[in-house]
Records
---
Amino acid sequence: MQDKELYRQVLGLASPWVVGRVELNVEEQRVDVFVEHDSRVKWRCPQCDRELGCHDHTEERTWRHLDTCQFVTQLRARVSRVDCPEHGVVQVLVPWAEPRGRFTLLFERLAIDILKHCQTVKGACEILRISWDQAHAIYGARGRARSGSQRSHSGRTDRRGREGVSSRTGLRHGRLRH
Ligand SMILES: [Zn+2]
């Protein structure tokens, strides 16, 4: 089965990112998609956009993605870091998630929609199979993004534009404020 190509397309991955392998764990009802990159690629410093070679990689990071046929699906990757003469050793941006996000952008979008339509956060958490704290983090991050910067088509976020924006969330006492 061409599962690597299937997941590359499902995740919308473009060069230099590719799916290295896909692991299916039936017992735990989980799919792990390992994302890798071409080693010759040049990266950009997330602060100043300077083009640089790969310095090293982070430890493997995990992002929760949309489920695959009821199986919890996780994207896993070691993210490149560049050594910028101005900003030091920093992690490059990945197109599927916010810099410190623990969920993919597509999962966050679904979570926001479900949170908006559920009467209680608890109900939304049960559908999404996430904790209250995770729901709070997603809703808070998106609230900041809405009042701060817009994501560009290249998938980059204007981080400078997000600084100084208050982190008001829509969640209070287990209910959503609209
Ligand atoms: Zn830099």
---
Amino acid sequence: MLTELSKLSEKKIGREPRVCQSTDPGQAELRQRIQELGDWFHNIDLHGVQTAPGHFLGDFPRIKWKHLADVIPQDLTGATVLDIGCNGGFYCLQMKQRGAERVLGIDVDDRYLNQARFAAKQLGLEIEFEKRSVYEVASLPGQFDYVIFMGVFYHLRYPLYALDSIVKKVGKQLVFQTMVRGSETARAYADNYHFWNKEIFRDPDFPQMYFIENRYADDPTNWWIPNVSACEAMLRSSGLHIEAHPEVETWVCSPRHVQRDGRFILDMELDGTL
Ligand SMILES: C[S@@+](CC[C@H](N)C(=O)[O-])C[C@H]1O[C@@H](n2cnc3c(N)ncnc32)[C@H](O)[C@@H]1O
């Protein structure tokens, strides 16, 4: 996935992936352990050693987190958190450091899960990590106050199935982020259009998703890339209320109309009653 892109970018800008140099023997051993865990996508500071200092997006995902940091409560004492596609665990660590009682990170990739477990242990934080797909969230008992769903949507062949499944798990807030391409302008559209109105589809701001048959950014797991209007339309259509849009590809939402006549949208869609 993006690891390939990362390597490509490193080549393009003529930099070798690098790790911090230090003469401290403790740090040398730590650096060695970090390297043994494979390529990291999350740059995490572990006692002064960076796990992905050559990331092609810069200090990632701290550059994303800085937009979110003030939108999510500083004090999460007692809160429960689910991070879907947790990768190296950066967001899990942040949420735990804000006092969350329970943080569960799920991902389908053992390499990332092992990195996340290592990072949490190094920082002395008790976080659960589990190998589980987003499509299996329904089997997790109960809801979570905060659900983080960042950087996964566009990797899915069935993105709305995933979003509608996730909505059932959100107690207070969903943090949603996806790659966005095309128009970055969200506009309000009419409730209905005449069958012969074809013009509307030529409007670049109209909600649309690009389907990638082969590869985008060298990554065969990039399937559907929405524009900004489509993100907002899908979030609303899944019954969410958009509370904040702290940067172009990230939204913070709360559940609003996630049920109709006491039933979740996903269940109604699956049994043909929506
Ligand atoms: C681009 S990374 C995003 C990581 C992190 N959430 C972030 O925003 O920085 C995508 C992550 O989603 C995971 N992933 C891909 N498909 C998944 C699925 N079906 N269920 C759960 N995680 C998945 C990948 O293993 C990877 O860790």
